[in-house]
Structure formats: C-alpha cells, structure tokens
Amino acid sequence: MIALVVSLASAFTACNRNGASGKESTANAAVAATVNGKNILLEEVDRLVNQQAAGQQNQMSQLQLAAARLQVLDGLIQQQALFQRAEKEKLLPTEDEVSQAINAQKTQASMTDEEYQKMLRESSQTEQSLREVARKQIAVQKLQDRGFSKISITDREVEDFYNNNKESFVNARGVGLATIMVDPADNGMQSDAKSEVEAKQKVDVIYQRLKSGGDFAQVARAESEDSQSNARGGDLGFLSEEQLKQSGLSPELVNRFFNSMQVGDITAPERTPTGRFYIFKLTRKQLQSENLTLDSPGVREDIKKALINQRQSLLSAALVATAMYDAKVVNNLAQSMLDSPNNLSGVRPAGAVNPSPAATAATAAATPPASSPQGK
C-alpha cells in the first residue's frame, strides 16, 4: 500500500498545486488539463509516465510515449472529478482518519519511522503530500462505499447463478499444502541463506526441528524465504492435481501427496530445478472430484460475493461516468496532439532521450483509457 501511495502521490499533488498549501504559480508551467478549473500539470503527467515505464521510456517510440501520456492524464482527470464529487457531497475524511490510514499502511508494510522517512526522501515526497493523497483516496472510497451499501442480493439471484453455472461448482481432486522454502540466493530476508552450503545447512536444521515437534506455521513465519506464503504460516491453499502437475514438482512427489502421505505429514527437503529447497506439509487431501450443491459449505457465500463484486464494478463505472458528465474538462494535451498530429516530439517526458530511428519508426497501438479508479 505504501508503494501504491507513493506511485499516486505525484498524480494527486498535480491536482492540488493551486491549493492553499503552496499557492505555487503555474504561469510558467504547462497545464495538461483542467477539471472544473483545477489544473493538472504536464510535469506531473510526465512524472507518472516515467514511474510506470520503470526506466524503459528511452526504448519507447514517440507515439508510444504520447499514448502513455494520454492514458495517464485520463486517469488523473477521472480521479480529480471523483474527488470533487466526494468533496461536494461532504464525504471528506477527518485528519484522524487520514492519520489512521497512513499508520495502517506503514504497519502493513512493516516500516519503521526511519524507513518511512527514507521512502519519502527517495520518492521526493513529503508527509503533507502523502496526507493529501490519502485524503483524496479515502474521500473517493467513501463515495464508492455509499453506493455499494445499497447493494442487496436475493436468494433467487443466488439460485439462478448456480443453475446457470453448475459446471463451475466442482471440487477437483487435489491437496492442500503448506511449505517452507530456503533459497541459496540472497533475498535480503532475516536469517537468509546466501549460498548453496548455507541453504543446505539451514533446511536440514529446519527439517530436524519439525521432526522434533516444531510447529510448522511458526517455523514457516520465522524461517521461510518465500515472502508470499510465510506471512500465512507457509499456507499455499488447495491445489488441484492439474495445478500440481504444472507447478514443476516431480511426478514422484505429486504421487506421494495422493498416496503414501497422510494429512499432517511433512516431506524431507526437496530440491527443485530452480535450486531452491522446499519442505511440504500435507494439510488436506481430496482423492475424488465432487460436484457441489447450493447446500455445500461456502457455495452460497461465494456466489453472493461474486454477484456483489459484479455490481460494485458496474457501480464504479457508473460513478465515473456521472462524475465526468458533471465535470467541465479541458484536455489541453489531447487538443495539442490534434492540432499538430505530425509533431509529437514535444510529448517526450522530461529526462527521456530521443529513441533510435528503428524505435521511432515503430507504430504504437493506442492504449485504451485507464480503468475506473477504485480509490485505493
């Protein structure tokens, strides 16, 4: 979430340049667009283009960069229109709500205050600019949530969905797994193995600890070098037999999951072709595929969630459409391209060098407008 906030900080700062906080003069700054008179500066569009290109903008043709600029600006226009609507409807968050949101993001990212300040410096942001980002995100989320709260799903809708999609409600043959991974490469994690010898020693110690009664989930959280699963105690969830076959695990190991191993058993350290070591714990085993009914555990709840998600997506799109309809938008960047269709060299973001002739000659497919923002 911190990374997301940082990546959007420039965008929202652009929409706030004429606010009371800085009162910066934009007389000499190119204005890419205005939304009800609020400026979105071209330099902020370029900053986001450079962030999203992740250093690859020098390999993009002028047409590709022009398309990227239009896409980024379209997203900024939508965000500003949504925020202004939330502001008009008195849905702005309190200062305490903003502080809570930022603190929650810092906690989720396991950031110390020192790391947080370093992140601000490296991203050329300030505490105030991030607070403005959070304020706008929370306001837009409140706007969406108010519409989402009106959604209700009837039992008839759930039943109709099930009857029209019965083939999707099948529990496939498969197993539930948890894992502890040790990688000889340096992953920058605590107690990280950094060589073949260290990895082998570490995984053997872990295996002996588990055989002596160590709690698998606790050991996984402390020792596994798989950042995606160790926070869940190594839990990988349920994997079908087909998923296991495509995972790169040896057929012999997959066969053991279904035959010789019992729920609760662990494997000895297994080395995969990637060079990493894995210890697996079998947490569930389903030997036969079975058709689910509406009375099967979780089916009704899953259908209801799916229907709610569908409606939320449609409501989000409708919210953007109405906010944009009510807004007076002047897109200077798009107009300049229409006025000079054969002269797009001016759209190259600051800091990017001219591409090679071959890259310039490449034709870029126009990028579709950004999807409706979710306020997160």
Key traits:
alpha+beta, 11% strand, globular, disordered C terminus, single chain, three-stranded antiparallel sheet, 2 domains, 376 residues, 15 helices, 9 strands, Triger factor/SurA peptide-binding fold, disordered N terminus, Chitinase A, domain 3
DSSP helix fraction:
40-55%
**Count of separate DSSP helical elements:** 15
What is the 3D form?
globular
- Main pleated-sheet profile: 4 strands, antiparallel
Overall number of structural domains: 2
Provide the CATH architecture of the largest domain. Orthogonal Bundle
Average pLDDT for all residues: 82
- What is the radius of gyration? 26 Å
Low-confidence stretches: 1-28, 345-376
- Overall structural class, as computed from helix and strand content, comes to alpha+beta
- Per CATH, the class of the largest domain reads Mainly Alpha
CATH superfamily of the largest domain: Porin chaperone SurA, peptide-binding domain
Short description:
This protein is an alpha+beta fold. Helices cover 51% and strands 11% of the residues.
Q: Could you walk me through the main structural features you see in this protein, from its secondary elements to its overall organization?
A:
With 376 residues, the protein is an alpha+beta fold. It has helices spanning 2-14, 42-53, 62-88, 95-108, 113-122, 127-148, 155-164, 196-211, 216-223, 227-230, 241-246, 251-258, 299-326, 332-339, 357-361, and strands spanning 31-35, 38-41, 170-171, 174-182, 235-240, 270-271, 277-286, 290-291, 329-331. The longest helix is centred in the last third of the chain and has 28 residues, at 299-326. The radius of gyration is 26 Å and the shape is globular. 28% of the residues are buried.
